[in-house]
Write a structure and sequence with these properties.
The chain has 285 residues and is of the alpha+beta class. It has 2 domains: 184 residues, Transposase IS200-like (Alpha-Beta Plaits), CATH 3.30.70; 86 residues, no CATH class. It is 51% helix and 10% strand. It is built from 13 helices and 4 strands. The chain has a 4-stranded antiparallel sheet with strand order 2-3-1-4, sandwiched between helices. Helix 1 runs antiparallel to helix 2 and helix 11 crosses helix 13.
Length: 285
Amino acid sequence: MSRGRRDNICGGTYHVMNRGNRKGLIFEDDRDRRQFLRILIDEQKTYGVDLLAGSQMANHFHLVVTTPHGNLSEFMAQLEGQFARYSNWRHDRVGHLFQGRFRHVVIENDIHLLIALCYNFLNPVSAGLVTRPEDYKWSTYAATVGLSPVPDYLSINWLESLFPIGSLEEAQRRFRSLMAEERPAAAYLREHAAAVEPNWIRQVIRSYVGENLQVGMLPRTYRSVLRSRLPDLFHDDMTSELRADAIYDARVVHGYRLAEIARQLRLHPAAVSKIYRSQYKSRHQ
């Protein structure tokens, strides 16, 4: 029996992303970025989509959106199609601008949402474009935390859901303080550790990153936001079974390359690859 389409959920919230064909540029200058934003605002109104966050890089973009009418596919088709036609016209090109269909992750709870927001807002920092997320012009972060006016097209009500502490201004301050942490999502989890079961957190992170995104698409931003250091994932007194579990988690949950894991364990990469493949097969039978 076929599964229902998860990109057409009424009231669904999604982290949406796409990048340029062959990793090429999508936005060649600020004029391109302004046009993308104009199209985004127009189509957002047409399809009744709520924009929670967004960032435009050079060869990719990220959005966090909610679709009250269950029409993510239609919204994204118009957004990407119109911008691709504009870009080809302006730059005198033909062919595909984007690398296939957009990718999306269904956001199912507050932890998912926080990870998606960190992913969005820390992209320019991880890319070395700025040292602070509020300094990047083509992101909604500054408006989100109260450092610039909130535009009409941006919804920041989610702040009071993540930080139910009385006022929007205080929630903005708390989120900005959290984003100054070395690993914001991990800091948020520490604050809520008493109310959240650790194994559930582990499953949430795995489902968001490992099960929904191809490991090859795992963003560098995520790695700086949440993952543990390799020495913390492996211990000298581990049994072979525990080590195999740790290798799988290091790859899928934390996004380390097999070569990095092999160096940490002082094993040949082929041996680590064999263990990982065996774990993957046993977990996906």
